[in-house]
Amino acid sequence: MLELDDRELFRERMFYGGRWHDGRRHLEVRNPADGRVLGRVPDADEAAVRAAVAAAAAAFPAWRDEGGPARGRLLQRWYELLEIHREDLARLITLEQGKPLAEARAEVDYAAGFLSWFAGEAPRAYGEVIPAARAGEHIVVLREPIGVTAAITPWNFPAAMLARKAAAALAAGCTMVARPASATPFTALALAELADRAGLPAGVFNVVTGAAERIARTLLAEEAVRKLSFTGSTAVGRELMALCAEGPKRIALELGGNAPFIVFADADLERAVAGALAAKFRNGGQTCVAANRFLVQKPVYEGFLERMAEAIGRLRVGPGWAPSVDIGPLIDQAAVDKVLDHIEDARAKGARCLVGGGLHDLGPPYVQPTLLAEVSPAMRLWNEETFGPVVGVAPFEDEAEAIALGNATPYGLAAYFYTRDLDRAWRVARALEAGMIGINEGLISNPAVPFGGVKASGMGREGAHQGLEAYLETKYLCFGGARPS
Ligand code: SIN
């Protein structure tokens, strides 16, 4: 098991108003790898959530007026502390989320990357000057922080998804109250500890823990909260959007996906297989951008399956802290049941199982990396996000069919395709209905890009300069009656 070098990073309290707070009720947090209790966190009541919002509201005017460069310097200091405590943060992620340690380290780098990126963006909230239509008039457009913001973050990337939201909001001059997933609160609390050490003023970044619905309702009933940013399922996203309609409050939603991964006959197959492994097996398939439907052109269909079977057969499953493990446990029993259901359903409807096909010898929550051929639109794994280590492959005839199959889903987060034909690359990229397209690339996440989806995969973008804009309001000033010079 893993021990932290800096035990102060393991916090079992909430952080708001620059101080740590306990609650009357608590929730246990378990290690998904072995079910052991790691610790407990407060189950925030309404009063605690309202106190966190009040702290964020009180901190807002000074933080807004601090200026972008000063905010950027504090974010940069926060980034440096993530780098210094990289190993401990990775251990925490592995302990509460389950992913292999090497992937947890990569997640800390990814999270730190958002802090560093937005430290650079903080001074760049540019406005504009519009040439006036009338003599003596001056028109100026300001970009101002929107105020107190709320974030509800998922369990699959407990550091990176929080950093992606918080770094952008704080860079823009907003303050934030964040609620991490109940399965993985300790990484968020460690980030709060480091924010405090970095010198972020009290109330700028706050973390409350506990029951999702109570916290969301309380946050969104607060007038001071101007925006919610949510990453999670489409079903919950719809409910949150309805709550935001009351305000109305702004909302950004990064929801589920059902990414196609298309391999054309002219593709570099070796590259396509490497990309498929990255796009599918990162975090054991538990990512919203995971490839979910593999479509392979008929002339290379069997060749792709053969190479994938070899590569998947080499993947090692086990607890995230064991050396050389590629796939950790799934997050909980419900996740295991869903993945096994998808496999069973596909097999019952005619899919051919080439590798894996069930529970791993280690038992739940470990599932065998699985390769299924001849999957079809009648199957659950075609229509729903599997969120597990299952590759389902179907053949296609031509480009038009690949595009039609790729787009035949209500979701539109990511899509991937492999080809050597430049004209086709452009055509297919334009035709696929997704917010992010990997062309001869299976790993598309990075702090400098606008991350987000279309259709039922949500709205808004995180990362890149668009990430900063998402936390800015536009104010137009009209100066009239100025004397000509
Ligand atoms: C997600 O699964 O929600 C995001 C993963 C990523 O940022 O790559």
Kindly, what is the distance between the CA atoms of the first and last residues, rounded to a whole number of angstroms? Answer: 74 Å
Which compounds are bound in this model? succinic acid
Main β-sheet: number of strands, strand sense, barrel status?
Answer: 7 strands, mixed
Strand content: 15-25%
- What percent of the residues sit in helical stretches (DSSP H or I)? 40-55%
- Shape type: globular
Biggest sheet: strand arrangement: 14-15-16-13-12-18-19
Cα gyration radius (Å): 23 Å
> Which residues form runs of ≥5 with pLDDT under 50?
none
**Can you give the mean pLDDT?**
97
Structural class: alpha/beta
- The total count of helices amounts to 15
Number of strands: 22
Task: Tell me about this structure.
- The chain is of the alpha/beta class and 485 residues long.
- The chain has helices at residues 46-65, 68-84, 86-97, 101-121, 160-172, 185-198, 212-221, 234-246, 269-281, 298-313, 333-348, 380-383, 399-407, 422-431, 464-469; strands at 14-16, 19-21, 26-30, 37-42, 128-130, 138-145, 148-152, 175-179, 205-207, 225-231, 250-254, 259-263, 291-297, 352-355, 370-373, 390-396, 411-412, 414-418, 436-439, 454-455, 458-459, 472-479.
- The protein has a seven-stranded mixed β-sheet, with helices on both faces.
- Strand 5 and strand 6 form a beta hairpin.
- Helix 2 (68-84) runs antiparallel to helix 5 (160-172) and helix 3 packs antiparallel against helix 6.
- The longest helix is centred in the first third of the chain and has 21 residues, at 101-121.
- The site of succinic acid (SIN) has 9 residues, from loops.
